[in-house]
Amino acid sequence: MKHLFFLIAPLLFFSCMTVPRNIAYFQDLDQHQQQLRAGGSYEPVIKNNDQLLITVSAPVLDQQSVAQFNLPAITFLTPGETNVTQPNSIQTYTVGTDGSIAFPVLGKIHLTGLTRSQAIERISRLVSDYVANPVVNLQIVSFKVTVLGEVGKPGPVEVKNERISILDALGSAGDLTIYGERQNVLLIRDNNGTIEYVKFDLTKADLFTSPYYYLQQNDVLVVDSNKTRKQDSKYGAADSYRNSLVYIFFSAVSIIVSFLGLMLKK
């Protein structure tokens, strides 16, 4: 009986073990200073096929002069009616494959590769030849990232303020599931036709200093499945049920043997 106890006792030990390793984020954070300078760019870079909302304004006396630099409102007639209605949609500029937009009066303006502030500065300089002290506002309205894999809500994440970090994106997607491989998160980025990819380890604090910490529009994050999920995928429902019965059986035997061992000692 004692020999049987020593053979089955390890099963009891491993069946009761939990596996907390590689679950917690930033496990080495205490090894760093209290402050880490975040890497990456705080401003998105304009890319081909981006949709831009650009408006130009000026002091009150120059409103007529500045109107020619703004896209006209979209209006249409509803069939059967004579009243002109204006939809909620807005007109935007599409950055072409050559990296330029067709701007009223000014013609083509190359914007691909510029940050938001650089693009505003370029347009303002060109408009200032016609209007004194113009105010240009630019927003990338097509800014989104996509999160796939082992997260709570996989799919696209809309970005309204043109700034989103890896953690923000994962949080918006419902965080990683318990089956998400925190040491293997893949970022895929399309740099105007050149595919770039990099992997992250969310258990390490050096993520904060990565130049990829802040995402760009159309970035894709893919969270890989851990070994437990991959192992489970090899079995069907019937196999899982049988494995559960085996686990319960050996757990029960372990408990009984442990109890008998204690009784024999007494």
Helix and strand layout, with pairings?
Layout: H1 2-15, E1 51-57, H2 63-67, E2 76-77, E3 84-85, E4 93-94, E5 100-103, E6 107-110, H3 116-127, E7 135-140, E8 144-149, E9 155-158, H4 166-172, E10 180-191, E11 194-200, E12 220-225, H5 227-232, H6 237-265
Parallel strand pairs: 8-12
Antiparallel strand pairs: 1-4, 1-7, 2-3, 5-6, 8-9, 10-11, 10-12
Helix pairs in contact: 1-6
Task: Describe the protein in words.
With 266 residues, the chain is α+β, with helices and mostly antiparallel strands. The chain has a five-stranded mixed sheet with strand order 9-8-12-10-11. A hairpin with a 3-residue loop joins strand 5 and strand 6. It has six helices and twelve strands. The two termini are 14 Å apart. It has three domains: 101 residues, Roll (Outer membrane lipoprotein wza fold like); 90 residues, wza like domain (wza like fold); 26 residues. About 5% of the residues have low confidence. The relative contact order is 0.18.
Percentage of residues assigned to helices: 25-40%
- Biggest sheet: strands side by side, in what order? 9-8-12-10-11
Please tell me what the overall shape is: elongated
Structural class: alpha+beta
Gap between N and C termini? 14 Å
CATH architecture type of the largest domain? Roll
Total of helices:
6
Global mean pLDDT:
81
- Total strands: the figure is 12
CATH class of the largest domain: Alpha Beta
